[in-house]
Amino acid sequence: MSQNNNTSSPHVLALPYPSQGHINPMIQFCRRLSSKGVKVSLALTNFISNTLKPRSDGHVSLVTISDGYDEGGFTEAGSVDTYLDRLKTIGSSSLGQVIEDHVGTSHPITCLVYDAFLPWALDIARVKGVCGAAFFTQACLVNYVYYLVYHKRLDLPIVKTPVEIRGLPLLEMRDLPSFVDSLGSYPGYLKLVLEQNCNLDKADFVLVNTCYELEKEVTDAMSKECPLLTIGPTVPSFYLDKRIDFDKDYGLNLYHIDANHTTACITWLNSKPPRSVVYVSFGSMACLPVEQMEELALGLKQSAFDFLWVVRQCEMDKLPMGFIDEVVNKGLIVTWTEQLEVLANESIGCFFTHCGWNSTLEALALGVPMVGMPQWTDQPTDAKLVEDVWKVGVRVKVGENGVVKREEIVKCIIEVMEGDTRLNFAENAKYWKDLARNAVCEDGSSDKNINQFVSKISSS
Ligand code: UDP
Ligand code: 7WV
Fold it and tell me: Phi and psi dihedrals of 114, rounded to 5?
């Protein structure tokens, strides 16, 4: 725990991994801490800060660090390994400097909350004498699988399946995080996710963006291994407990979002009947093969339902020729959107999703049933939770050549949008929505854990 600053009030420095799916939950956690009276600063990379010029929300302060790629961020690096290497070396010294800069001021840093993808940050915290809390932005089940692999309780290169974790359905190869099963396609990322465990036993806290009710069994299992606190879901307060009045959205989009488009989008949704539209998004990183993009496009066109589809600019030219015009009125295609506002709209009947953990938690918190079409990383495991643990949707079956066929896409959408199956998913979605929301309300499981965290960092 903190070796100095005994008399000062807590000041948390939050260090997210610089991607959309990691920054969003960290911002939300910062706001929760701030709403409980803790001073918080959020460290963004020079690249993100210079390109987006974000302004403080008036509650969480912003500071900058370097990831070694101030001009172009990840794309400037050219490869995963080069990026991660430089992020570690340059990031470490830059982080140390930020902590140093606060020494002797009226608000020295007393606690570092760092993304678990950046375990070297704990070393810096130790050197500087501040306490360190790892922050996991993925499902506890995913973290636990990586924990077991790291500690050789599951063996690579080929994990013996099915994997049995008490209280959970058996996990087949297709349910495991892709880096574990796809035999070395992303060695840099595999190392990144496994290394999260290299000094976990030395962290003062291990915070996980999930809630106890959603992942009871695995939270209990992993709690035996480290000082774990579930603190999620980190969805903006407006959509959960409404206790933080300034917290209506994540507030930082790495992709351009045009206010006029958002208005047009919401107006379009408002013109549709309740639960009649399929919202389709694959998050901020996934790249679909051209063939898959085509099947999806044709599946959506063939389906009886209207759809709103987020196709990032870099994916646009994979759409079939003339597609946007062919589906006019029935389908709206946008390059990025206010996802929470969309999911909260009455017109949405299901979320056709890649099952990124944030998207999954957002759909759960808003009670929207899902069709899961996981692509890589933790998404297959999240899809397993959706289909077989919470039973709030289905997962598409992948065809022989690795492509999900249009007929399968249509079939899954019908299952979640129509008939008795729809009612069943809607009922389950309501059940989990209430549990997830209650977790962050006063005296809920996550709220208690956050209070415990605040109380400990305040008295150290
Ligand atoms: N998101 C958004 N607008 C979009 C698509 C996604 O704001 O058009 C947000 C979404 O709400 C979520 C994040 O981007 O908070 C994506 O995180 P997730 O973990 O789902 O996927 P990733 O992008 O990390 O693969
Ligand atoms: C960003 C970069 C690498 C990975 C992820 C995000 C993730 O899956 O969370 Br492996």
Answer: -120, 145
Closest ligand 1 atom number to CA of residue 312: 8
| 19 close to ligand 2 (CB < 6 Angstrom) | yes
Instruction: Kindly give the distance from the C-alpha atom of residue 185 to the centroid of ligand 2, in angstroms, as a whole number.
Output: 14
Q: Say if ligand 1 is within 6 A of residue 362 CB.
A: yes
- Domains recognised in the chain with CATH numbers: 11-252+439-459 (3.40.50.2000), 259-436 (3.40.50.2000)
pLDDT tens figures, 207-229: 999 999 999 999 999 999 999 99
List, for residues 3-58, the tens digit of each pLDDT value. 444 456 999 999 999 999 999 999 999 999 999 999 999 999 999 999 999 999 99
CB atoms within 10 A of CB 101: 12
Ligand 1 centroid, distance to 251 Cα (angstroms)? 12
DSSP strand pairing (61-65 vs 111-115): unpaired
How sure is the predictor about 118, in pLDDT bands with cuts at 50, 70 and 90? Answer: very high
Hey, whose CA ends up nearest to atom 13 of ligand 1? Answer: 21
The Å distance, Cα 281 to ligand 1 centre, comes to: 8
